[in-house]
Amino acid sequence: MRVMKRLAALALCAVMLALSLSACHGSRGMPAFEIPGQFDTSRDYEITFWAKNDTNKTQTAIYQRAIADFETLYPNIKVNLRLYTDYGRIYNDVITNIATRTTPNVCITYPDHIATYLIGDEVVVPLDGLMRDEKYGLGGSELRFDGPAADELVPQFIGECAIGDRHYALPYMRSTEACYVNKTYVEKLGYTLPETLTWDFVWEVSDAATARDADGNYLVNGQKVMIPFIYKSTDNMMIQMLRQRNAGYSDESGDVLIFNDTTRELLFNIADHVEKGAFSTFKISSYPANFLNAGQCIFAVDSTAGATWMGTDAPLLDISEDKLVEFETAVMTVPQFDVNDPKMISQGPSVCVFNKSDPQEVLASWLFAQYLLTNDVQIAYSETEGYLPVTSKALNDPQYREYLSRRGEDDQEHYYVKIDAAKLLMDNVQYTFVTPVFNGSASLRDAAGQMIENVVKSVRRHETLDGEYMTKLQRDVTALYRLDQFGDVTASGIGELGPMPATSKALLMTLAAVWAGLGVLALCRFVRRRRR
Amino acid sequence: MKKIIAVALVLVTVLALAGCSSKSSDPNVITHAQYVEKALDEEVVIETYVQAHQSWWDNKVTVYAQSKDGAYFIYEMAATEEEAKKLTPGTKIKVTGYKSEWAGEVEIVDATFEILKGSYKAKATDVTKLLGTDELIKHQNEFVSFKGMTVEDYGDGNAFAYKNPEEKSDDLYFKVSKDGKTYEFCVEFYLTGKDTDVYKAVEGLKIGDKVDLEGFLYWYEGANPHITSVKVVK
């Protein structure tokens, strides 16, 4: 952690220093990228690609193979891969390197992060022109690979990469959350799984599962431990609940709308079930998968990209074999308030291209970023977890169709839970949503989850939960995540109002530096918790 | 006779004072045995001694602490960087927090502390014979040793694995066996980073090495000691 602390300090200092120097000396920053008419193949290029794997050797191998294949097609472009095990560190390092103009060329990222990168002048390349370019754009005539055409990107997924009226990333993989259900126990409790899970159903079954015998053993599993419902990401839990209830969270301008009556109602309801011992969270208890696989949880909500950890026959396990319990796993959408209007979050990595002084280098970077959308890469990577390819070209490819059709043939490549998780997203793409992206949206997301975490802890500690408690909770998370300091510095505003005066730029850059520092600290917290 | 009585009185006085000094004046302070009996999520107040801590960050520090009657893992205790620097091995602290459990690890969370007078450094308890038994968990969080363990293949013919092999900026994992049973141990990066002797020692391990190990008996879905010392003995 010493490293993280130093990085945080360095990032803040470097950004502050670089920005203040540039302000003092009137530097104009990086020139806006202009697409060259022709890719100069007489020159050699060396580009860097910062990527993330899920501590998964297969994913690393896929990246390496993609690079080798790309370099075969473009012998004048060398791609250097740098791998990370979490997005937080990538974000952290990018912020540090923006100040020193040593950003990578291509980077796996999330739109929330890009919103912060965009505060820098021409740091991230808007991709709209590149995507449309006849020669080198999507499906372009000069490409040396069979990439997707523009209309072969899943509209929902490419739409998520737009900030304001521009696209600053390409989608790479998509996932959502799934509820991994111990169907065996649901039926043992006398219930039948509905077609679509509702919050009412999940709470009712979870409450029922807390019944114990005189010795304190839970009736449903005969064990001393049972947490019927565990949620991995309480950020997502609150965000999805609010969206399903059409309640406020935030808007495109960065206004914080999360403190409303619906939020309070939801928190009180969650508290009721915590009181009964029916609900807990990853941060408070541990990974939902571990409890699920030990027969100590019935509804485990986690990413579809975590499907290989779920179920009796999961290829990846964190508990010993002797703790494993036999049960049938059902992969279902997250609980809904209205089954006729389901809503679920869309998540997953995207790829952005950083601007450089040499437009030819940027073009080389774009070619590689685009290569990641080819079927070979998309299909291979998606099969490592419950990810979904982001192009219809890959989704409709016979090879991918065959992969899906072989569901359950084995407990590795064709593990049924993993394929069901991918299919879940495939069948529900039209019901997915993303939250507005603005500078500070990552903090608001943390605050959303923190409110649930605090309520769960307070109930377990027998504190009084009433209106006064909720008011204090709102005050506490506002202060902790500085929610009252979000200005109107929204990414969506960038590029729409023409060039800003130099003083305004300087002010915004200072704000960015502060945000960068705060972001780094917040990420340190995020990274730390997930590393236990 | 007077001399004998005088000496006896002095001894009694000294012993009485010693007894007083080891017992807290705060009636809320509990012993380790009482801590074990406490239910999860109850508030606890303990006095104990720092044995080690992970690197400070964001006004929090995670502490491995031990008293003569038992050990504690204090997760993300509130501390400024200056305060954390004072938490050197042996430092006596009074901790107020909540008893909690995460993946089998019983710990104190949401804790605050104050430094008291006193010092104690625990010697490693040899728990080799307790591996694989129900007795081992009674030593959870203690500074312990494992003698004569054999390094096993962690996978693909390697004696250990990096959590982040490309950057080497994360935990190390390795497996050791005794009497036919294999156990997974960890070098926690935030406790002992890549510049420490133990990190380097694990990087130098070979399958089949006989090793003596020391560390804190952390728990993650079973015993998962955070190793602080590795010595190849054969």
| Class derived from helix and strand content of chain A | alpha/beta
Number of strands of chain B: 12
CATH first level of the largest domain in chain A? Alpha Beta
Low-confidence blocks of residues of chain B: 12-21
Multimeric organization: heterodimer
Helical run tally of chain B: 4
The termini of chain A sit apart by 12 Å
Strand content of chain B: 35-45%
Number of strands of chain A: 14
What's the CATH topology name of the largest domain in chain B?
OB fold (Dihydrolipoamide Acetyltransferase, E2P)
Structurally, the number of domains of chain A stands at 2
- How many angstroms does the end-to-end distance of chain B come to? 60 Å
Short description:
Chain A is α/β, with parallel strands linked by helices and 532 residues long. Chain A has helices at 2-24, 57-73, 87-99, 111-117, 128-132, 155-159, 183-188, 199-208, 234-244, 261-275, 282-285, 288-293, 359-371, 375-382, 392-395, 398-405, 416-428, 441-460, 467-480, 502-530, and strands at residues 45-52, 77-84, 106-109, 162-163, 166-167, 170-171, 177-182, 229-231, 279-281, 299-303, 329-333, 344-345, 350-353, 432-433.
